[in-house]
Amino acid sequence: MEQPNLSYIKSMSGGDKAFEQKLIEIIKLEFPQEKDVYYYNVSQKKHKESAENVHKLKHKISILGLEKSYDIAVAYEENLIEGKTDLKNEFEAILQIMTLYLDQL
Amino acid sequence: MNCIIIDDEATARAIINQLCSSVTSINVLGEFPNAIQAIKYLNQNSVDLIFLDIHMPDFTGFDFIDTIKNPPKIILTTSDAKFAIQAFEYDCIVDYLVKPISQERFLKSIKKAESFLANKVEEKEEVNADDGDSLTDNHLYINIDRRLIKIDIPSIYLIEAKGDYIQVKTEDKNYTVHSTLKNIEEKLPADLFLKVHRSYIINIKKIIDIEDNSVLIKRDVIPVSRSNRPELMKRLNLL
């Protein structure tokens, strides 16, 4: 499975290390909150709300350079909008990989 | 360009702010996590450009645009390309950036915004140039909420000073404008308009009757100061 990376963050920071660190801190703070809301809404079978959470999480997936995972998230969001949960496991595996990666940064 | 950033995601706001910092012509005045806070800010301040997220809870980017009067130029930022067609329905939207935003694409977008704003200034200058001719084409442009509204000069019957504002009364509508009587007096044809009091300019052709110290125009009774009365009497076609 593809692994997260900091290519995007480095490409737009212009070499500003302080900004890179600041952005990582923001992501480390915001990502668990968004993830918690997603898991709660999924557990409550609130598909529309879950789709919105996936939509928000998609941005962080792309920031961490997970291109294929991004496509899965897009498809999963569409599924949730249609009231289906196909790709749920795949999406949650992506969240797990991101969690592990952010923890070691 | 003074701008603000509206996005419910702190990560997105930080990225856009960083991208803005690489462009010297951009000055970020504020960041807002929701549209409501931004609307409150815009009620007190004006900006040239807004980076606006579409997908926000409760109040979307499009709701925001529909709510504010005379929106400035807007660059939409979104994780979704599917709203692009809807975006083209709004004149104020200059570009549509799909997240994650690359520096190259961001700079292209800024150039677009600058070009739109430059055109706007040129249009305004053209209108101001028309202003100079307004005595011949009988029109005057007044600035209300950053909109230039064209007024037919002969339709103006009364202008009243109200503190830092003037109220321009026309046959169809009244307008309150941030200006002075002196400013508007200079723009009006002297053969048609006369300052009869320190707070009033009237259209002489609209006078219904005159009493000692007042004139009746439409339904407004306007005081005439002693010093202005001789000029008024001179301008009337008296028997």
UniProtKB/TrEMBL annotation, chain A:
SUPFAM superfamilies: Histidine-containing phosphotransfer domain, HPT domain. GO terms for biological process: phosphorelay signal transduction system. InterPro entries: HPT_dom_sf (IPR036641). This is Hpt domain-containing protein. It comes from Neotamlana sargassicola. The lineage of its organism: Bacteria, Pseudomonadati, Bacteroidota, Flavobacteriia, Flavobacteriales.
From TrEMBL, chain B:
Keywords: DNA-binding, Phosphoprotein. Gene3D superfamilies: 3.40.50.2300, LytTr DNA-binding domain. The modification 4-aspartylphosphate is found at residue 53. Transmembrane segments: none annotated. Residues 2-114 form the Response regulatory domain. Residues 140-238 form the HTH LytTR-type domain. InterPro entries: CheY-like_superfamily (IPR011006), LytR-like (IPR046947), LytTR_DNA-bd_dom (IPR007492), Sig_transdc_resp-reg_receiver (IPR001789). One of its GO terms (molecular function) is DNA binding. It comes from the Bacteria. PANTHER family: STAGE 0 SPORULATION PROTEIN A HOMOLOG, TRANSCRIPTIONAL REGULATOR-RELATED. This is LytTR family DNA-binding domain-containing protein. It comes from Neotamlana sargassicola.
